[in-house]
């Protein structure tokens, strides 16, 4: 084994490559680019492009690096009235948890580069979705710990929005699992292949997923917890310096992590690259394709800021419960119909962990009898 | 005859279809301007809009015309203008001193409403047609009688070009070079 091999083995060890380099580093990069894109795209669309005094060639991108530096070195003011420990810990843990979905999703079909053992991989979609619902809890904790009417109101608004979106996000991202008959992301991606991406097969699920991602990460038009004209800065009113940056960047990272799951299960994952052997074909290229798709989804959601105004809380809840939730249920129905018609061939129907789901709707394979006889 | 009561109907709330099409139309307009933007902003301070005579900018006092009537200080809605007492030579016997009142202005408070200029009976107060002046500290914004009589230095005019702006729906902001705003004919 040469030095290069050792180095490659270290870099491409899934926790390092996937969680640190693509996950944390990539998410940081995406967060910066998304903030920049959100502002500049809104400026272009709303006809208020200003002059770029710094880095005009890059479209003023360096401003954001400067902004980040400023946040890093700014004094962190912790008011005396706050609940010290949760106030300090909530943004940090929230940020850490928001990129955790990276640690459980496979970015390639090559089993030697899976971040989890194959047995756990069967549940990767469930795991990723379960983890992606954790960060909002820390937002509420942050709002509560700051011990101030504005932050508590912000936290409560966040809670309302979470209640509305969580069901939508999970149901819409689970729809492909129903069609394929597996919670294994690898199988879902491979069932999609080249042309049967779920964005085409099940556009309702994609629409609902995009709305849910925008809602969950306070992107426009759902920027409700942090709505500055009404509740100062929502749960983050008391935060300053690096803690505020963590809170703000955490939302973008969460958007990126959600987009990653969506791009895997709805946008065909690593296709058009077919993972093969070796580091480059087996891991590097597929993972970069997935991340690029996730970045596109993130930027597309950031673009909404240019077009929409902010909803009021009641309007957003009305939209979620009355329109998007039925839409999601329709998407599930569509997924069931597609599964019944066998549009996507299950990769290995017998080993599917959602046999229980299959046995409800699949007279084709008569899994009920299978299952009962198996008992 | 009393006017007839007419039942007014609210504009009908669109159904699901119009909801979808309206959102799509909004997104399409957004994309259109994203690809092909129109600029409605200018490169301030390299360019700055030419302001016409009569613009309510900074206020200057012509002390010789002032008759100390205090109308300006009384009308000021934000209490930015105050009268102060200054000793001046007596008009008839120059060796004797008398005190006279003159207005001074605090630009931390002034809202540039122009009431003081309008009410001044002798036109002792007048506007200059610019208002973008930078101060290093708040104390500088309190003008004493000396400063109040001098027109402030207009930095932008030294380094930028004045433009006249036209807003055009199709082409965005149309900028026409202006001839310059300064009184000295430059
Ligand atoms: S412009 Fe208006 S606010 Fe300013 S000093 Fe005159 S009256 Fe007062
Ligand atoms: S209103 Fe005019 S004349 Fe009267 S005190 Fe003010 S500046 Fe002087």
Automatic annotation (TrEMBL), chain A:
<dbReference type="Pfam" id="PF00146">
    <property type="entry name" value="NADHdh"/>
</dbReference>
<feature type="transmembrane region" description="Helical">
    <location>
        <begin position="195"/>
        <end position="215"/>
    </location>
</feature>
<feature type="transmembrane region" description="Helical">
    <location>
        <begin position="280"/>
        <end position="307"/>
    </location>
</feature>
<dbReference type="GO" id="GO:0003954">
    <property type="term" value="F:NADH dehydrogenase activity"/>
</dbReference>
<feature type="transmembrane region" description="Helical">
    <location>
        <begin position="159"/>
        <end position="183"/>
    </location>
</feature>
<feature type="transmembrane region" description="Helical">
    <location>
        <begin position="84"/>
        <end position="105"/>
    </location>
</feature>
<dbReference type="GO" id="GO:0009060">
    <property type="term" value="P:aerobic respiration"/>
</dbReference>
<dbReference type="GO" id="GO:0016020">
    <property type="term" value="C:membrane"/>
</dbReference>
<feature type="transmembrane region" description="Helical">
    <location>
        <begin position="319"/>
        <end position="343"/>
    </location>
</feature>
<keyword id="KW-1133">Transmembrane helix</keyword>
<feature type="transmembrane region" description="Helical">
    <location>
        <begin position="125"/>
        <end position="147"/>
    </location>
</feature>
<keyword id="KW-0812">Transmembrane</keyword>
<feature type="transmembrane region" description="Helical">
    <location>
        <begin position="256"/>
        <end position="274"/>
    </location>
</feature>
<keyword id="KW-0472">Membrane</keyword>
<protein>
    <submittedName>
        <fullName>NuoH homolog</fullName>
    </submittedName>
</protein>
<dbReference type="InterPro" id="IPR001694">
    <property type="entry name" value="NADH_UbQ_OxRdtase_su1/FPO"/>
</dbReference>
<feature type="transmembrane region" description="Helical">
    <location>
        <begin position="16"/>
        <end position="37"/>
    </location>
</feature>
UniProtKB/TrEMBL annotation, chain B:
<feature type="domain" description="4Fe-4S ferredoxin-type">
    <location>
        <begin position="57"/>
        <end position="86"/>
    </location>
</feature>
<dbReference type="InterPro" id="IPR017900">
    <property type="entry name" value="4Fe4S_Fe_S_CS"/>
</dbReference>
<dbReference type="GO" id="GO:0016020">
    <property type="term" value="C:membrane"/>
</dbReference>
<dbReference type="GO" id="GO:0003954">
    <property type="term" value="F:NADH dehydrogenase activity"/>
</dbReference>
<dbReference type="GO" id="GO:0051539">
    <property type="term" value="F:4 iron, 4 sulfur cluster binding"/>
</dbReference>
<protein>
    <submittedName>
        <fullName>NuoI homolog</fullName>
    </submittedName>
</protein>
<dbReference type="GO" id="GO:0009060">
    <property type="term" value="P:aerobic respiration"/>
</dbReference>
<keyword id="KW-0004">4Fe-4S</keyword>
<keyword id="KW-0677">Repeat</keyword>
<keyword id="KW-0408">Iron</keyword>
<dbReference type="GO" id="GO:0046872">
    <property type="term" value="F:metal ion binding"/>
</dbReference>
<dbReference type="Pfam" id="PF13237">
    <property type="entry name" value="Fer4_10"/>
</dbReference>
<feature type="domain" description="4Fe-4S ferredoxin-type">
    <location>
        <begin position="101"/>
        <end position="130"/>
    </location>
</feature>
<keyword id="KW-0479">Metal-binding</keyword>
<keyword id="KW-0411">Iron-sulfur</keyword>
<dbReference type="InterPro" id="IPR010226">
    <property type="entry name" value="NADH_quinone_OxRdtase_chainI"/>
</dbReference>
<dbReference type="InterPro" id="IPR017896">
    <property type="entry name" value="4Fe4S_Fe-S-bd"/>
</dbReference>
């Amino acid at each position: 084994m040469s030095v290069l091999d050792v180095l490659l083995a270290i870099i491409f060890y899934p926790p390092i490559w996937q969680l640190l380099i693509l996950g944390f580093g990539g998410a940081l990069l995406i967060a910066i680019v998304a903030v920049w894109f959100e502002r500049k795209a809104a400026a272009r669309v709303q006809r208020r492009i200003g002059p770029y005094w710094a880095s005009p060639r890059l479209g003023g991108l360096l401003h954001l690096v400067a902004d980040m530096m400023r946040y890093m070195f700014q004094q962190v003011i912790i008011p005396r009235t706050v609940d010290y420990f949760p106030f300090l810990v909530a943004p940090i843990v929230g940020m850490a948890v928001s990129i955790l979905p990276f640690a459980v999703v496979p970015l390639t079909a090559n089993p030697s580069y899976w971040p989890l053992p194959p047995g756990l991989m069967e549940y990767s979609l469930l795991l990723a979705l379960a983890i992606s619902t954790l960060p909002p809890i820390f937002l509420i904790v942050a709002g509560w710990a700051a011990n101030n009417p504005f932050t508590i109101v912000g936290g409560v608004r966040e809670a309302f929005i979470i209640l509305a979106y969580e069901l939508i996000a999970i149901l819409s991202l689970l729809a492909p699992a129903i069609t394929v008959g597996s919670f294994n992301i690898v199988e879902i991606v491979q069932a999609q292949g080249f042309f049967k991406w779920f964005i085409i097969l099940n556009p309702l699920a994609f629409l609902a997923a995009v709305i849910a991602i925008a809602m969950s990460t306070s992107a426009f038009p759902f920027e409700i917890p942090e709505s500055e004209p009404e509740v100062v800065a929502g749960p983050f009113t008391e935060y300053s310096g690096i803690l505020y940056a963590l809170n703000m960047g955490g939302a973008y990272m969460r958007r990126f992590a959600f987009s990653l799951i969506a791009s895997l299960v709805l946008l065909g994952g690593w296709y058009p690259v077919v993972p093969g052997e070796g580091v480059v074909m087996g891991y590097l290229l597929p993972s970069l394709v997935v991340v690029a798709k996730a970045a596109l989804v993130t930027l597309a959601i950031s673009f909404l800021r240019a077009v929409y105004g902010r909803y009021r809380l009641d309007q957003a809840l009305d939209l979620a419960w009355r329109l998007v939730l039925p839409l999601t249920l329709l998407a599930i129905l569509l997924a069931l119909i597609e599964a019944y018609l066998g549009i996507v061939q299950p990769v290995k129907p017998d080993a599917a962990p959602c046999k229980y789901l299959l046995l409800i709707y699949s007279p084709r394979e008569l899994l009920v009898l299978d299952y009962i006889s198996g008992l | 005859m009393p006017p007839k009561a007419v039942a007014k109907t609210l504009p009908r709330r669109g159904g699901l279809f119009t909801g979808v099409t309206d959102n799509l139309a909004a997104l399409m307009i957004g994309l259109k301007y994203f690809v092909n933007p129109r600029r409605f902003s200018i490169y301030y301070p390299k360019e700055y809009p030419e302001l016409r005579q009569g613009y309510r900018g900074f206020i200057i006092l012509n002390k010789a015309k002032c008759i100390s009537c205090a109308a300006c200080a009384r009308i000021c809605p934000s209490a930015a203008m105050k009268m102060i007492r200054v000793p001046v030579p007596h008009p008839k016997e120059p060796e004797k001193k008398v005190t006279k009142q003159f207005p001074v202005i605090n630009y931390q408070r002034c809202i540039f409403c122009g009431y003081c200029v309008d009410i001044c009976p002798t036109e002792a107060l007048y506007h200059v047609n610019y208002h973008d002046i930078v101060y290093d500290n708040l104390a500088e914004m309190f003008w004493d009688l000396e400063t109040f009589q001098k027109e402030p230095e207009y930095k932008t005019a030294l380094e930028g070009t004045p433009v006249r702006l036209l807003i055009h729906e199709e082409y965005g902001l149309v900028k026409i070079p202006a001839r310059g705003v300064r009184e000295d004919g430059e």
